[in-house]
Specification:
It is built from 8 helices and 5 strands; from the N terminus they run E-H-E-H-H-H-E-H-E-H-H-E-H. The chain is an alpha/beta fold.
Length: 178
Amino acid sequence: MKHSTITITGQLGSGKSTVAKMLSTRLGWLYYSTGMAQRVIAQNRGITTIELNRLAITDPSIDHEIDSIFQNPPWGKNPCVVDSRLAFHFLPQSLKVCLHVAPHVAAERVLAEKGRISESYSNVQEAESYLKKRMELEQAHFMKNYHLDITDLHQFDLVIDTTCLTPDMVCEKIIEKL
């Protein structure tokens, strides 16, 4: 096997976490999520993730807190599936996977997800608007602080549109590429 780390990035609601967890189970690899780390940081500060994203534009300590994980990853040399918007950038030797999804499907998925910390929506339109705003903030933030365009698909080894695929189907495509 060429890669011992798989980084999964993509749009909000594209299935990153679901696929990453499923993939780690199938492969018997460890799982790590920077999204959960970000949600915990936001919750500890008493703010939403979108407010944390806004704050991170001017407060570099937030990025440092999240990014420092990749200097000494908690999984060490063990194979790992990393669910993270920027891990592909910090772990260039990984199999870099990017997931896409139609905005209305992303909103439906996120609205239906139980247990999301600090995020709740009353309907699909509200969820879609929130997700769009959050992605725009993240894109601006990543461009400003990392000079990184996360919408440039050329930097990934595999790009998958998950709109009409089940998580199992997405996992199969990744395993095939691996």
